[in-house]
Structures are given as structure tokens and as C-alpha cells.
From TrEMBL:
Keyword set, alphabetical order: Metal-binding
CDD domains: VOC_like
Entry annotated with the keyword Metal-binding: yes
Protein name, as recorded: VOC family protein
PANTHER family with a match to the protein in the record: METHYLMALONYL-COA EPIMERASE (PTHR43048), RING-CLEAVING DIOXYGENASE-RELATED (PTHR43048:SF4)
């Protein structure tokens, strides 16, 4: 079978703050910015992966959600428990320095993991967990 990842979704509560982080700090390019029925979806991606997109979406984008569902999603997002994404990088330490300088919440400084990668972790402006891994050079 020929199955590849095309898009993943990250809930954000403030698209402008999310853009400042994903575009300006991480260097992802903006591929789409769409408003519909009072909501906004922004698609970003790495220039190194033109066929993979990250959609920054409202936390309760489903029109069938009840007001209670919307409130529950907002509370889960505020706790930082909705989604997580793992990015790869060629230089974990340099990336860590750049992201830390942006003021992002540090969860883990760069460290070598027993399973063979060096990684670090942050929260994005909405509280989502982001890990950055560097594979060992061969």
C-alpha cells in the first residue's frame, strides 16, 4: 500500500500567537489561512516537506459540538493535554536555543535518550506538547 501522512491538526486558541511561534520561531511556511463561520484554520508546513501540512485549528472546530463540549475542549487545551507533535531536526541544541529565546515554556532541555535520539520539549503558545528529536549521525 502507498499510505503517507498528509495533514495533522493542532488545536490553538489564538491563531496570531500560534503563527508567531510556528512561522517566526520554527520557520514553517504558511500555506493557507481560511476563515469560515467565525472560525479560522491556518495551514503551515516545513519547506523541507512540501507534502506534509499542519493545520492550526480552533479547539472545538466540529459544528456539532454542544456548548458544553466546546467548554470541555477549551479546558483541555488550557491544561495542555489535547495533542502533541514530534518534529525532527538536525541540531537539537541550536533549535532549543532559538525556541527558548522566544519565551516558549521549556518542558525538557536537550538530552540523549536511551532509545537513541537527542531531544527536547516545549509547549506552544496554546499549551500543546512539542518534541524535537535529533537522530544520531551515522
Amino acid at each position: 500500500m502507498d499510505v503517507k501522512l498528509s495533514q495533522c491538526f493542532i488545536a490553538v486558541d489564538d491563531h496570531d500567537k500560534a503563527l508567531a511561534f510556528y512561522r517566526d520561531v520554527l520557520g514553517l511556511e504558511v500555506r493557507n489561512d481560511v476563515g469560515f463561520e467565525g472560525m479560522r484554520w491556518v495551514t503551515v508546513g516545513s519547506p523541507l516537506q512540501p507534502d506534509v501540512e499542519i493545520v492550526l485549528e480552533p479547539p472545538a472546530a466540529n459544528p456539532d459540538f454542544s456548548p458544553a463540549d466546546r467548554q470541555a475542549m477549551a479546558e483541555l487545551l488550557a491544561k495542555g493535554v489535547l495533542r502533541g507533535v514530534i518534529f525532527s531536526t538536525e541540531d537539537c541544541d541550536a533549535l532549543f536555543s532559538r525556541v527558548e529565546a522566544s519565551g516558549a515554556e521549556v518542558l525538557q532541555e536537550p538530552m540523549n535518550q536511551p532509545y537513541g535520539v537527542r531531544d527536547c520539549a516545549f509547549r506552544d503558545p496554546a499549551g500543546n506538547l512539542l518534541r524535537f528529536t535529533e537522530r544520531p549521525r551515522s
